[in-house]
Design brief:
two-stranded antiparallel ribbon, flat, 295 residues, 16 helices, 1% strand
Length: 295
């Protein structure tokens, strides 16, 4: 009888020990990620409260978490939206540029990754290596040749001149390919047996399966296009086509630095990316985790 009870006690002790370890691990991980989350959120909270402070207070004390309700005002936002600024024009230009850039980039990179993953042919691995090799070249090296190419193509001061050089994003192609390597190629054979064309299989069968990858890349590409400043600054020459980062940068002049307007405009500019992430949050997590482990 004792021989039967002893193994049961041992198994129960092991189970209790595992539960204690899991509980301690969950507490430590929760505390760690709470600290990390607080560190990440702290700059956004600081900018948010600073956007309601007068410009003189910002210049005198800088950015801080010192909150005085009596000194907080909406005059920064009021002057930003109603003053002699083109904030809404900058906002609209950035929105149009971001939507077009994200849609075209995802469309082009999906087809490139689809061809590099779903078909077998010679030089397939070499082509993929060349795609990855472009990630090793800094944009500053390509900037002048691209600028000269845009001049030759007469695309300076056009939205096409800003979007076209970034359509074939190597990182986006890589992510799509890594995601697709985990998809069964038997789906292609099943679609062909059912009489589907290659285009039909690509759009009707494979495209719906890659929605998490599309959502993840839409957020990352959207952030890149929304915050892009250097290349649009080189291409655009007309002030009426300036995007939000360029427009906000014009507030800093040798004759006066409008830090109050700059911080208020920057705080308001975060909203589109924040809303985009909230809309695709679940797809974003699925796409990032799947793309990280597949392939």
């Amino acid at each position: 009888m004792d021989q039967i009870i002893t193994p049961l006690h041992k198994s129960r002790r092991k189970a209790l020990g595992m539960k204690k370890k899991q509980r301690v691990f969950s507490i430590l991980s929760t505390a760690f990620f709470s600290i990390v989350g607080a560190v990440v959120i702290f700059p956004f909270v600081t900018i948010f409260f600073a956007s309601f402070r007068p410009g003189q207070e910002l210049i005198r004390y800088g950015l801080s978490m010192k909150i005085e309700i009596s000194e907080m005002t909406l005059s920064n936002y009021s002057y930003l939206f109603t003053g002699a600024h083109s904030y809404f024009m900058w906002f609209k230009n950035s929105m149009v540029l971001t939507v077009l850039s994200v849609a075209l980039t995802l469309f082009v990179c999906y087809f490139i990754a689809y061809g590099l993953t779903m078909y077998e042919y010679r030089l397939k691995n070499l082509l993929f290596f060349l795609v990855l090799a472009t990630m090793m070249v800094p944009f500053e090296i390509l900037m002048l040749p691209l600028y000269k190419e845009m001049i030759d193509l007469r695309l300076i001061n056009t939205t096409a001149g800003v979007i076209l050089p970034g359509l074939c994003s190597a990182s986006t192609i890589f992510f799509f390919r890594q995601y697709m390597t985990g998809l069964p190629k038997e789906l292609l054979d099943a679609g062909r047996i059912d009489g589907g064309t290659e285009i039909g299989i690509c759009f009707k069968i494979m495209l719906p399966i890659t929605k998490p990858a599309f959502a993840a890349m839409a957020i990352l590409c959207g952030m890149g296009a929304w915050n892009s400043m250097l290349w649009p600054l080189l291409v655009y020459r007309d002030a009426s086509k300036f995007t939000l980062p360029i427009g906000l940068n014009t507030l800093l002049t040798p004759y006066g630095n409008n830090y109050d307007l700059l911080i208020a405009g920057s705080c308001f500019a975060i909203l589109p990316i924040f809303i985009l992430f909230l809309c695709f949050q679940s797809y974003f997590i699925d796409g990032m985790t799947a793309g990280a482990v597949k392939g």
